[in-house]
Design goal:
Layout lengths: L1 E5 L7 H4 L3 E5 L4 H10 L4 E5 L2 H18 L5 E7 L2 E2 L14 H4 L3 E5 L3 H8 L5 E5 L4 H9 L5 E5 L8 H18 L2 E2 L1 H13 L3 H5 L3 H6 L4 H7 L10 E2 L5 E2 L1
Parallel strand pairs: 1-8, 1-9, 2-7, 2-8, 3-6, 4-6
Antiparallel strand pairs: 4-5, 10-11
Helix pairs in contact: 6-7, 7-8
Length: 246
């Protein structure tokens, strides 16, 4: 098993994910939202790149539900540059995706970085899973069980590498190296080393993170939520139809 880490969504190419099982990571905040929503009973999350196509898909699903008497809610969730998209039901805060809001819901989601990273990896990868610090070990275990090569995709921010995603990827790379005798690419080794150094002081690592400093005042509660490790064992997976389910 060889483990590679891709530093940002824009670095994903078919060649880098072909034949690999892939985990997409966006700690602040898209994959943390997806993990939280599905843990809280959401039926499915559909990752979209564009805003207009998100509205169109929402309307299509609402009509399908009407025709089949499906009472499950259909919600729009996401952001652009941390701000809720006008006309959407939910922003990109995991705390908004409470059980009473998302239970049995189909959520059409579009975010600046995370949902784009998922869609960049579609097509060539063997399987695509959704990882955050919240479920890192569970996803790493799922990736390790088949024994094939793995790519951990950090969504980054505006196609630039971010430390919070590197910490999660490093945590998972170290798990795979330890439990499944995985070999690490240079990037995977570096991320695993950084995680090992800051394992007991994640905030110390984030002090060097520009993305963290840009959101820490407004989203302090979200950050605290997203930095929890292994609080759930759910392993969301992208289905062939394009939805993310458990």
């Amino acid at each position: 098993m060889h483990i590679d880490i891709i530093g940002a969504a824009g670095e994903v190419t078919p060649e880098r994910v072909s034949g690999r099982n892939v985990a997409v990571i966006d700690v602040f905040r898209a994959t943390s939202v997806i993990v939280t929503a599905l843990s809280n009973g959401a039926r499915e999350i559909i990752p979209m790149t564009g805003i207009e196509e998100s509205f169109q898909l929402r309307d299509q699903i609402v009509e399908e539900h009407r025709q089949t008497n499906d009472a499950g809610p259909v919600l729009l969730g996401g952001e652009r540059n941390t701000v809720i998209i006008e006309g959407f039901d939910l922003d990109n805060s995991p705390l908004r995706y409470a059980p009473d809001v998302v239970r049995d819901a189909t959520i059409v989601m579009s975010t600046t970085n995370g949902t784009r990273a998922v869609n960049c990896a579609r097509g060539a990868a063997d399987g695509i899973y959704i990882a955050a610090l919240l479920n890192a070990d569970a996803v790493a275990r799922r990736l390790g069980e088949p024994g094939g090569d793995v790519a951990l995709v950090c969504s980054g921010r505006h196609d630039r590498f971010t430390i919070e995603d590197a910490l999660c990827a490093g945590m998972m790379a170290r798990f795979l190296e330890t439990h499944y005798a995985g070999t690490l690419s240079d990037m995977a080794w570096w991320c695993a080393d950084v995680y090992s150094r800051y394992e007991n002081d994640l905030m110390g690592a984030l002090d060097h993170c520009l993305h963290y400093h840009s959101i820490k005042m407004r989203w302090a509660e979200d950050i605290a939520w997203c930095l929890q490790r292994n609080v759930t064992t759910v392993v969301p997976r992208l289905t062939p139809e394009g939805g993310i389910r458990l």
